């Protein structure tokens, strides 16, 4: 069976604050495998598609402007139960409700500046990965490390 994948994105505030490395580190040291990574400016078209289920929310315009304020770092991570566990590593949508030890719990305060995105289901992950990485992601094996992480 193919390994589960999720789309994790460092938002413009995270990139500008120099937290890309810290966010990558959380996923790397947990044991997950990086299969795609890019720094890119976002566009209204990509964001409208990415956040299509939030179009009717009152904060939608604010969210799009926030996301257009600078480049983002998009990543695809792979591993057991990565979608759910990835969201737990990020913390709650509202950083003030996020436990210390999570990324949002440790590094931010307001929901409109919450540093990072993580797919909320396996289906959303597939949709987001093909949206942000239309040319696909890498398949590669960690020959030695895999057996130190999985039983
Ligand atoms: P997520 O999956 O945890 O990122 O949360 P959602 O999918 O519900 O919302 C997407 C993003 O919209 C969040 O990460 C926030 O950046 C932003 N957002 C959500 N709720 C609010 C809100 O009430 N006010 C503002 N300003 N932004 C919000
Ligand atoms: Mg979401």
From TrEMBL:
Keyword DNA-binding included in the entry's annotation: no
UniProt binding sites for ATP: 11, 59, 87, 93, 104, 114
Enzyme category, top tier: transferase
InterPro entries per record: NDK-like_dom, NDK-like_dom_sf, Nucleoside_diP_kinase, Nucleoside_diP_kinase_AS
Assigned keywords, A-Z: ATP-binding, Kinase, Nucleotide-binding, Transferase
PROSITE patterns reported for this sequence: NDPK, NDPK_LIKE
Similarity annotation: Belongs to the NDK family.
Protein name, UniProt field: Nucleoside diphosphate kinase
The organism of origin for this protein: Gigaspora margarita
